Structure formats: C-alpha cells, structure tokens
Amino acid sequence: MNSIDSLRARLPASLQAEQQGPVAVLRLNRPQKRNALDDETIFGVDAFFSAIPAGTDAVLLVGEGEHFSSGLDLSELDERDIRQGIEHSRLWHRTFEKIQFGRVPVVAVLHGAVLGGGLELAAAAHVRVAERSAYYALPEGSRGIYVGGGGSVRLPRLIGVARMMDMMLTGRTYSAEEGQTIGLTTYLVEPGKGFAKGLELARRIAENAPLTNFAVTQALPRIAEMDPGSGYAMEALISSIAQADPQAKARLKDFLEKRGPKVTRG
Predict the structure, then answer these.
(1) What mean pLDDT is reported for the chain?
(2) I need a surface site. Which of 66, 82, 143, 177 has the fewest CB within 10 A?
C-alpha cells in the first residue's frame, strides 16, 4: 500500500496531504481561488482516495484559507461541448463515489464558502463539521448551469428535494446555523475550532473496528434505500458478519469484563 510521502508526491499543488496517526488529512490548497475545484484538483482527489495511505483508518477533508470551497472553477467551462460536459460530470461522480464508498470514513470540516461543487464534495463525506463562518448555496441556477457532481442524488437525501429546489431556483443562502438545522451538518463549532473538532472525531472513528466502519459506510446507505424486507435481510447478514469478526469478539469480551469503554453523555 502507499505511504503518505509517495502519495503526496503525486498530488497537484492544489492539494496537500499529511498523516496524523491513523488519520490522513487532505487539504484543498487554492486559497487564492477560494479553493475552487478545477480538473487538476479533482484528478488529485481521485488519486488520493484511490490509494489511501497505509495505516489510515479515517480521512479528514479540510480547506486552506478563509473558505472550504467556492465550487467548480467556472473558467474551465468556456469551450466544453455536451459530450465533454457529460464526461466531466462523470469524472466528478467517480471521484466523489470514492469518498462516499471508499475504504475508510471521511470527516469534512466546513468554513466560509461551501458553494455549488464544494457543497457536493462535502455531501460525499460521512460526517460534516461546520464552523459558524460557513455558508451554503447552489448558485448554478443564476449562472445558467446545473449541478454535476452528484448533488442531485446526495443533497436531497440530506435536506429534501424542496429545499434543494429552492436553493437552485432562488439562489437562497443558508448560514451555518441554518445548515445545521436542516441537516447539512451534524456538528457546529466556533470559528477556528473546526480542524480540532474534525480531527477529534476522525480519531474516534479510527478507533472503531474496521469491519464496523465498513458496514456503516458501505451497507447502511444502501440498506436505507431498500424496501423494508430486503433491508432487514441485509441488516441481519451484515450484523452477523460484523459480530463474527475476531476483533469484535475481543472488544465484546473486554466490555463484559469491564475493560472496555462505556457510553457516557457527550
């Protein structure tokens, strides 16, 4: 498997990667462009999630500078015809699917602008932490375009079709507090505290049994889309596989013998 050093050498300047114990940190690094997502950056994100470094049990996705991401770099749209547009959208789909259904869970830390394709990128993560500076919008409608990075699929599952429709038709912007309320994020922290909170959560996730994390990120979203009968059958299968894992048996034994962690109020 790849080391963080070998992977870092293959990433474009618009991305930075570092290892913090079991957590790999991937940082969008175009602050002068508000971390707009150009093709080079998307190819780099694809490369990172295609070869997550050895020893990594969770990934933390963050943005450098004052913003997480202002979305698609519109300067690349000028000469694209319909066929090229479809290919470009499919590139984003393939890349973001490697985040959502990759080897390890992903925590995204959001601050400043989280717009368009930046919101689509964030929606592919499994846990989202927002600083109070974050704001969300889908400005594609006012620019004569449409989301192309999986937003039509992922965002309605988070906030509903009606809210997404409103955002695209009217250009509505949601604040960090509103985004927390409607389900765009699950944690809200003060400005400058996002990275620490995200790293704390990623490290906590990394302590879980790998098979459990895999079941949560791979099976749970698919079960949620099944009819109830199929969902129950899949849940029984995944549950039996997880509990038969040797690591699960060891953890259960530790708990029963009062050596394992207990649930406490957060």
Answers:
(1) 94
(2) 82
